[in-house]
Write a structure and sequence with these properties.
By secondary structure, this protein is of the alpha+beta class. It contains 15 helices and nine strands. The protein binds iron/sulfur cluster.
Length: 377
């Protein structure tokens, strides 16, 4: 089948198979941009309520650009990958200052927005402005590798270049928005990673992988090395019954988010000393092994032991490399906290309400001893 025939078959199939997703009902580039950023690494069902809340609070790009980044992070709370939210905010500021608050319609200009890569450029250009700009996400790469029999890892090098080239050939013509949506839909609903539903696929006659019985062998994956594992200790510190939260410095992982103090220490005594120094007081923690929270990040795995602790004085943040602010609060609700921070708070009985918000199972609780660890005065 030619590219033209493939396009026609795919568009015809899409007319009857498209899911009714809220961001497909708009051509507002801001709403589309937000949806595409949220959908990276996150399931459609999870994104929908976040997207609706976000646009209710920030109906225009300028509204988001004018707001403090903390407000953006608060609305992102629980969605994960917070760097996306920071970049979205930075991108909105760029468009407000450089393009007068109007998202540009030319792909080159869209690509120049901070945090907007090739995929998001394709999404904004085609969905909002009907430009014939390709996009490739994991679903699209899988479909293209199978249909065209691409024998290289589509995440890098020659394989990456080849899937973008193929996507570029297909998107040329009328209705580039529908074509890109259809490609993603095919990958999401028919050409699944395992057990693709080839019988109902509009490209079954053309598909190299189906013809050769190799659908589940493609795409090729060149395995990466195992993620390194980091060990940390989190202290759920209280002062006179109230919770002590710290805000991480803007740069780096979880930048700007609030959490229970968490340090890369191997024993709780050292952790108490580090946190006590940063908060200007004596921190003492429960004994035992703590409660274990495991958290997987893109590039590493965190093994966090969580202890309840107390501080003997009103905390005042001292000069340190990790946190920008401290707050003593009744609970964490209403603040921008990461999923990891929710898990940590949910690990201690007194902050159990965070467990519901995190949606995670309660962590393992090893036997405790009555000993308490203390920081040095
Ligand atoms: Fe995927 Fe099967 Fe369609 Fe090929 S025929 S694109 S393997 S669903």
């Amino acid at each position: 089948m030619t590219a033209r025939e493939l396009r026609a078959a795919l568009l015809s199939w899409y007319e009857g198979a498209a899911r009714d997703l809220p961001w497909r009902r708009t051509r507002d580039p801001w709403a589309i941009w937000v949806s595409e950023v949220m959908l990276q690494q996150t399931r459609v069902e999870t994104v929908i309520p976040y997207w609706e809340r976000f646009l209710a609070r920030f109906p225009t790009l300028t509204a988001a650009a004018d707001a403090p980044v903390d407000d953006v992070l608060t609305l992102w709370s629980g969605l994960g990958y917070y760097r996306r939210a920071r970049l979205l905010h930075a991108g909105a500021i760029h468009v407000r200052d450089v393009h007068g608050g109007v998202v540009p319609d030319e792909p080159e200009a869209i690509r120049g927005i901070p945090g907007v890569g090739a995929y998001t450029t394709g999404a904004i250009a085609s969905f909002a402005f009907q430009k014939p700009e390709p996009l490739v996400d994991g679903n699209v790469a899988r479909v293209l590798c199978r249909v065209f029999g691409i024998e290289a890892d589509p995440r890098r090098g020659a394989g990456l270049a080849e899937v973008w080239r193929r996507a570029g050939e297909l998107v040329v013509g009328e209705r580039p928005d529908a074509l890109n949506n259809a490609l993603m839909e095919l990958g999401a609903t028919v050409c699944a990673p395992t057990r693709p539903r080839c019988l109902v696929c509009p490209w079954r006659e053309a598909c190299v992988a189906r013809r050769e019985g190799r659908a589940e062998e493609l795409p090729i994956r060149v395995e990466k090395a195992a993620r390194p594992r980091a060990e940390e200790i989190a202290l759920v510190v209280r002062h006179r019954g109230r919770l002590v939260l710290v805000q991480r410095k803007k740069q780096g992982l979880y930048g700007g988010l609030w959490e229970a103090p968490r340090v890369p220490a191997r024993d709780v005594t050292t952790a108490c000393e580090q946190v006590g120094r940063a908060l200007g007081g004596v921190v003492s923690a429960e004994g035992g092994e703590g409660r274990v929270v495991e958290h997987v990040l893109t590039h590493r795995e965190l093994h966090v032991r969580v202890f309840q602790a107390e501080i003997d004085t009103e905390p005042r943040l001292q000069a340190n490399d990790t946190w920008d602010a401290v707050a003593v609060v009744e609970h964490a609700e209403g603040r921008a906290v990461s999923t990891l921070a929710r898990k940590v708070l949910a690990a201690t009985p007194d902050t159990g309400s965070a467990r519901d918000a995190a949606g995670d199972p309660p962590p393992r609780a090893p036997a405790r001893s009555p000993r308490r660890a203390r920081s040095r005065p």
